[in-house]
Amino acid sequence: MESRALSLVISENIESLMERQGYNGVSLAEKAGLSRTAVHAILKGRIASPRVDTLERIADALGVTIYELMADMTDEELIAEINALIAAIPEKDRPRIRDMIAGFVRMLPTAAI
Question: How far apart are alpha carbons 32 and 59 in whole angstroms?
Answer without folding.
Answer: 8
